Amino acid sequence: MTHYPHLLAPLDLGFTTLKNRVLMGSMHTGLEERGDWNRVAEFYAARAAGGAALIVTGGMAPNEEGGVFPGAAGLFSDEDIANHKSVTDRVHAAGGKIAMQILHAGRYAYGPNCVSASDTKSPISPFPAKGLDEEGIQKQIADFATAAARAKEAGYDGVEVMGSEGYFLNQFLVTHTNKREDGWGGSYENRMRLPVAVMKAVREAVGPDFIVIYRLSMIDLVPNGSTFDEVVTLAKEVEKAGATIINTGIGWHEARIPTIATSVPRAAFTWVTKKLMGQVSIPVITSNRINTPEVGEDVLAGGAADMVSMARPFLADPDFVEKAEEGRANEIAPCIACNQACLDHTFGGKISTCLVNPQACYETDLVYNPADTFKNIAIVGAGPAGLSTAIVAADRGHNVTVFDRTAEIGGQLNMAKQVPGKEEFWGLVDWYRTMIAKSGVTVKLNTEAGVDDLKDFDEVIIATGVTPRDPGIPGQDGPNVVSYIDVLRHKAPVGARVAIIGAGGIGFDVAEFLTQAGDSPTENLEDWLAEWGVTDPGTARGGLAPEGPKPEAPARQVTLLQRKAQALGKGLGKTTGWIHRATLKMKGVEMVGGVNYEKIDAEGLHVSTGETREDPRVIACDTVVLCAGQVSDRSLADALEAEGITPHVIGGADVASELDAKRAINQGSRLAANL
Ligand code: NAP
Ligand code: SF4
Q1: Which DSSP symbol is given to 667?
Q2: What is residue 658's predicted lDDT score, i.e. its pLDDT?
Q3: What residues of the chain score a pLDDT lower than 50?
Q4: At what angle do helices 193-206 and 228-240 cross, to 10 degrees?
Q5: Of 312, 335, 358, which residue is a domain's last?
Q6: Which residue's C-alpha comes closest to atom 8 of ligand 2?
Q7: Residue 652 and residue 618 share a domain
Q8: Same domain membership, residue 641 and residue 587
Q9: Alpha-carbon distance 593 to 359, whole Å?
């Protein structure tokens, strides 16, 4: 039986056939720049072996000025070609196909030599770009063609020309960035001349029977972006110029509308790709927030595209397609679209990995071999740290028992999943449940494990997590004060006016939870599009609704506070913090920093400002919610040590500050790999 008939159907490209409709989309992992080519090969070969029909690499610079940052990888020398050949050979040996993305960043290049259509500076880079002269333009075209020819020499099955996301080619297409008055600017015909010239040059350089994908921005989400008529015109010209496939790009990097974050509804932009279907005769790929085989199947069955692109889901699980084929979709480790270990790492100059799968990009470093001796292992705490330890340890052959005092596994993930926009956490908890059962781990819920329960195990792992920090504010024991646990876990009643003490990840989550009136817009595409002001690019340039964002009225009046005298939300994720700040702003949340908490009484929260406690005032509210951080729960670890048993302490029980699921899962998996 074929489980996903559309998703798993082959795609005949004439000169070659893709074995299914799943493209592993391009991601910058940072591996190529480190120069460990065995590691690069291992990363891609694992995804090829796992069934992706075609892999697109992270963006390779066609030249120095087009690199995303100084030193960005590209095919510049014979040595580079040989290194890439080692990767393509391994992918082919694993039964896959791989295309190299050619990425010219234009004004997004993080370096002083960046170039663009005109003298402009992007809002997301400190470096102003220089507008190219005729000679400079011809050089860029030639460099694209050379990169494509070298990719062919390196054994790639194709190239993807990156023409979306606001990068170089996109910058020529729209008046937002192209202010030229010569033959490369002005009319749309002139503005699209460069992308089309690049496509022609690339096709000429590689000859026929070589996959050339053009990634086309179908909805720019920036002012003066393309109309959909222009998108169609470009798509037709790109086809004529020799493209084999058109892939979808959604939104420029500088767009202030989220396009891939977890709060974006699944498959939120496939309707845009669908508008192009039937307008060109080559296959069209759709993209963004497709993260399960079911979603991919529905998208294809609904005629939105010929193929789906998934990128981050292949970090979370290299065997995505194989598991789908084998009817084991519930075993696919879900990408929860958090960006915490992939894009946030990329933008922080670190190697990408995955919160759910710490082996991603660490395939040669974090290896789960069968254990030499099988042990009896007790794990206390069924949060992400304990669960990931349990699964890896059991898979290595150990006999594992997990204890948790609550009635369900998942720990703090069960609070996160209550927050509007974090619905993906439900799937993560479900996945843990599946994998725990499959691994044969014994789970003892509603069980407060004590020293006597643990003393006979060979190894004891304490993953008891955290408890809320006591902020010691006079009046915090009053009836109008609750903690984030009361709100998110126990659904404690909360009044119409709320003050939240603490603006970390949890303070922001609680503010989003308390201001959301009806159903989460993440669960309703129309509501979500209206909330962020996205409309049909057929009716408004760039797909920006002329009336702007239309958020729903907030359910409550919320004030979010912190003691630090700095902008709130600075510590949130690099690529997602702005979304949380924008969401709360749309909900009218007042953000107040630099306060001292004086006391809480029936009037509300009394605060003052600065070291000399000036400007005393009351934040009038019905409920105060404490989100003042967390401290390690080491009580059981201490009791064991007192009895001469030395446990392994992981996750929040080990270090509470800056605890997140990424660190907990990584630490647990690494410990289990060595038990
Ligand atoms: P947190 O990020 O450490 O924030 C704690 C907040 O409490 C801060 O705003 C801090 O600000 C305040 N605070 C600290 N000590 C205080 C005290 N004695 N009295 C009053 N206020 C105090 O912790 P969290 O919000 O509990 O989050 C826990 C972890 O979960 C974090 O590492 C976070 O990254 C993670 N998390 C992440 C996400 C996400 O979306 N990625 C979501 C939820 C949680 P001041 O010291 O300035 O007052
Ligand atoms: Fe997906 Fe988060 Fe993993 Fe990135 S870190 S691949 S967004 S689950």
Answers
A1: H
A2: 72
A3: none
A4: 20
A5: 335
A6: 335
A7: no
A8: no
A9: 39
CATH code at 273?
A: 3.20.20.70
Q: Which of 500, 563, 574, 600 to mutate to test the pocket of ligand 1 (most atoms within 8 A of CB)?
A: 563
What is the number of the ligand closest to the CA of 466?
Answer: 1
Q: Report the C-alpha gap between 21 and 160 in whole angstroms.
A: 16
Whether 367 is covered by a domain: the verdict is no
Task: Give yes or no for a contact between 215 and 250, defined as CB atoms under 8 angstroms apart.
Answer: no
SS3 content of the chain, % helix, strand, coil (to 5): 35, 20, 50
* Cβ count near 39 (within 10 Å): 18
| Confidence (pLDDT) at 1 | 55
Structural domain containing residue 283: 11-335
Name the DSSP letter for residue 219.
Answer: E
536 within a domain of the structure (yes/no) = no
What local confidence, expressed as pLDDT, does residue 657 receive? Answer: 79
What whole-number percentage of the chain has pLDDT above 90?
98
At residue 600, the 3 state secondary structure works out as: strand
Active-site annotation holder among 4, 44, 167, 484: 167
| Nearest in space to 337 (alpha carbons), one of 414, 253, 421 | 421
Per-residue three-class SS string for 155-174? CCCEEEEEECCCCHHHHHHC
Task: Count up the domains in the chain and report the number.
Answer: 3
What is the distance in A from the centroid of ligand 2 to the CA of 23? 17
Burial class (CB in 10 A: 0-12, 13-18, 19+), 77: exposed
Radius of gyration for the alpha carbons in the chain, expressed in angstroms and rounded: 26
Identify the nearest ligand to the CA of 27 by its number: 2
Query: Can you give the pTM of this predicted structure?
Result: 0.96
* Residue 4 is a catalytic residue: no
Q: What is the best residue among 335, 344, 431, 576 to mutate for testing ligand 2's pocket, by most ligand atoms within 8 Å of CB?
A: 335
Instruction: Name every residue whose Cβ is closer than 8 Å to that of residue 394 and which is 6 or more positions away in sequence.
Output: 400, 439, 440, 441
Residue 662: how many other CB atoms lie within 10 Å: 19
**Centre of ligand 2 from the C-alpha of residue 386, in Å:** 19
Helices (H), 493-574: 505-515, 525-532
- In degrees and rounded to multiples of 5, residue 548 shows phi and psi of 75, -175
285 and 406 share one domain: no
Q: Are residues 199 and 329 in the same domain?
A: yes
Residue 208 in tokens: 């026929």
Distance 591 CA to ligand 1 centre (A): 15
**Which of 458, 87, 18 lies closest to 245 in space, CA to CA?**
18
Nearest of 149, 55, 54, 71 to residue 105 by alpha carbon: 71
d(CA 221, CA 84): 35
CA 522 – CA 599 distance, rounded (Å): 37
Residues 479 and 652 sit within 8 Å (Cβ to Cβ): no
Pairs from 351-355 (Cβ < 8 Å, separation ≥ 24):
351/29, 351/30, 351/31, 351/34, 352/27, 352/28, 352/29, 352/30, 352/315, 353/315, 353/666, 354/312, 354/315, 354/316, 355/660, 355/661, 355/662, 355/665
What is the pLDDT at residue 45? 98
Does the beta carbon of 511 sit less than 6 angstroms from any atom of ligand 2?
no
Indicate whether residue 316 lines ligand 2 (CB < 6 A): yes
| DSSP E strand stretches across 174-288 | 211-219, 245-250, 284-286
Evaluate: CB of 570 within 6 angstroms of ligand 1.
no
Could you tell me how many residues make up the chain? Answer: 675
